[in-house]
Amino acid sequence: MVGDAATSLRLQAALLLLLLVALANSAFFVVSGELPSLTVAEFASLQLSPSLVVEGSPGSKPGSQVICERVEINGLSRLRNLTSFFSSVKVKVLNMNSTGRPPNITVCFHRNASLGVGMCPEGQWEKLTKGSWVRSMSPFDHKLLDIRITGSSVGTVEVLLSEEFYLYRLIFLVLGITLMTFASSLSNSLVIYYGGAMTLGILLVVLVVLFQVGVVSFLTSYIPTLLRSLLLEMGIEEDLYNPVAVFLLACVVLTGAWLGFWAVRKLVLTEDGSIDTGVAQFVAWSFRIVAASMILQSSVDPLLAVDALMSIHFQICRLSFRRNKNKHRRSYKPVSSPAVDSYEHEHKFQRLSDSNTFYSSFHDAPDRKHYSKDEWDEFTKESTKKALESLVCSPDFSRWAVDHADRITLLPKKDTNRRHQSWLPWS
User: Fold this and answer.
1) Same domain, yes or no, for 91 and 194?
2) 159 and 179: one domain?
3) For this UniProt entry, what is the primary localization, expressed as one broad class (predicted)?
């Protein structure tokens, strides 16, 4: 309960910190209320003719004057408009002068309210391409749009806002949550390793074949004609072209699958057929990193994306902690063996004879006997054998063995020269 409360407090603190950052980001944006403005919630358009004369604008000729205008774009509240999580807003600037020579119009899209109108750095000004300019922004962001017209001509521009919903961002969020939740389970599944490796092997073989065919076709353009003549000489007519193509495709797929299968057997599995622990941990963290990247890409607003990632991470950690805690409680059950208890009780006060007295192998005892490696192995084997004989001969152990016969399993003797059996008959 204490751990759950601490986790909940940490989650609330992280959410509060992100909210404060979002509020600070919004509070930093302070502009004059006299500027023409557009609100994302309304998605309206605005036509204007820049009229503010500015001298010394970066990027313009020294001493020349330009005509500028600034448009304020107000975003939505994050907490009240979560339905726009997967959306983005497109800001469009259109040149409305259809006659005469088009004016030289450049725009600067920024959020620095401390800059004067038309005073953006030279590298931030962008020209209209074919009379239009389009950029995307978060529906929760607040930005400024500076419009600059150089020369003596006066122009009219239109600023439009439009919201677009992206389905792939929703798919990224769902896949990211699923992948982060089941990362540990997937990293310990043989189906994932074999399926992924076989798919990758097939793709590699197909790419190699396509590359080779492309190179050969580029160097020698008469290869198709030569192959057709060879097939005809072998007695394979045009009616058999499709079966031959299917057979070759099947060979390519099987070659790629065998390559992936071999890679899993050599790089992933241990000698006893289980998944290597280091490989499983690496794959699990790889899944988590990919899942985090998907969640961060689920929204164009970075604050909401990070908030969603942290919330999902804390919820998964909390559920995992609870599951492991309950599993530990269910699995922890003290098991006592009557035979072992009887054996310990029987030998608790029994005094060892001189022949069975063995001095410590690591303390500095004067009567300590020094063993070689072979003598020590023989000694441990003989001691274990005597202890097991004494245990098996006790009547309590016999009764315990009869009562718990269903729990006793005899494993086959391990043969290091024989390869382990796999779940596939042909492996």
Assistant:
1) no
2) no
3) nucleus
| Cα-based angle 362, 366, 371 (whole degrees, multiple of 5) | 50
How many Å apart are CA 56 and CA 117, to the nearest integer?
11
Contact (Cβ atoms closer than 8 angstroms) between residue 137 and residue 89: yes
- In the chain, how many domains are there? 2
Collapsed DSSP state (helix, strand, coil) of residue 32: coil
Q: Tokens 């499983």 correspond to what residue?
A: 280
Annotate 314-377 with DSSP letters as a single string.
HHHHHHHHHHHHHHHHHH------HHHHHHHHHSSSPPPPGGG----SSS--TTPPP--HHHHH
End position of a domain, from candidates 305, 323, 341: 323
Helix-helix angle 338-346:395-403, to 10 degrees: 170
CATH number at residue 96: 2.60.120
State the Cα angle at 265 between 259 and 267, rounded to 5°: 95
Q: Which of 323, 341, 366 is the last residue of a domain?
A: 323
Tell me how far CA of residue 40 lies from CA of 45, 139, 160, 166, 169, in angstroms: 10, 6, 10, 17, 20
Each residue's pLDDT tens digit, 277-320? 888 888 899 899 999 999 999 999 988 899 999 988 888 888 87
Residue whose C-alpha is closest to residue 172's, from 82, 288, 304, 299: 299
Q: Are residues 127 and 249 in the same domain?
A: no
Indicate if 180 and 289 belong to the same structural domain: yes
Decide if 129 contacts 90 (C-beta within 8 A).
Answer: no
Q: pLDDT (tens digit, 9 = 90+) per residue, 104-162?
A: 889 999 988 888 888 999 889 999 888 889 999 999 999 999 999 887 667 788 999 98
Structure tokens at 288: 């988590």
Range of the domain at 215: 172-323
Q: Are residues 189 and 157 in the same domain?
A: no
Length of the chain: 427
Taking the whole predicted model, whether its pTM rises above 0.70 is answered as no
Pairing of strands 126-127, 45-48: unpaired
Phi first, then psi: what are they for 8, rounded to 5°? -65, -40
Q: Is 181 in the same domain as 302?
A: yes
